[in-house]
């Protein structure tokens, strides 16, 4: 349930990441806590961070989904997720959704 709630927030860009804390005037570290290279936001954490870019191929390559590994040009995590699901056969969509939910 926690994973689903997190993704519900992430898709709506409502996670309490540094960019959102800054908009509210709250104290926050600006850099991503994982890579310390980029400003932290949902998109960065889930698709463009170096750690995310190492993680998703390990999940998606065995499923022959190399063409949908997230890159720096993704506009949103939700858009990327929809792109993945469009590439998956109907009978595998639930399993791939579960992998993405657990991975995020």
Automatic annotation (TrEMBL):
Residues 2-56 form the Reverse transcriptase zinc-binding domain. It comes from the Eukaryota. InterPro entries: RVT-Znf. This is Reverse transcriptase zinc-binding domain-containing protein. It comes from Arundo donax (Giant reed).
């Amino acid at each position: 349930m926690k994973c689903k709630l997190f993704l519900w927030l992430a898709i709506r860009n409502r996670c309490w990441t540094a960019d959102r804390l800054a908009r509210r005037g709250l104290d926050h570290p600006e850099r991503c806590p994982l890579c310390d290279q980029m400003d932290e936001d949902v998109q960065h954490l889930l698709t463009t961070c170096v750690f995310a870019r190492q993680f998703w191929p390990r999940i998606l390559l065995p499923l022959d989904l190399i063409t949908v590994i997230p890159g720096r040009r993704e506009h949103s995590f939700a858009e990327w997720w929809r792109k993945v699901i469009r590439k998956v056969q109907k009978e595998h969509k639930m399993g791939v959704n579960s992998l993405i939910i657990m991975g995020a």
